[in-house]
Amino acid sequence: MNAPGTDRTGVHEKPGGALLVVGDVVTDVVARHRGPLAPGTDTASAIRTLPGGAGANVACWAAHQGCADVRLLGRVGTDAAEWHERELRTSGVRPHLVVDPEAATGTVICLVDTGAAAERTFLTDSGASLRLDPEDWSPGLLDGVARLHLSGYLFFSEPSRALVSVALASARARGVPVSVDPASAGFLTELGVDRFLARVEGVDVLLPSRDEACLLTGLPDPADAAAKLSRQFPLVVAKQGAEGALIAQGGGVRARVPAAPAEPRDTTGAGDAFTGAFLAALLAGAEPEGAAAQGCRAGALAVGKVGGRPPVG
Question: Which intervals hold domain Carbohydrate kinase PfkB (predicted)?
Answer without folding.
Answer: 19-310
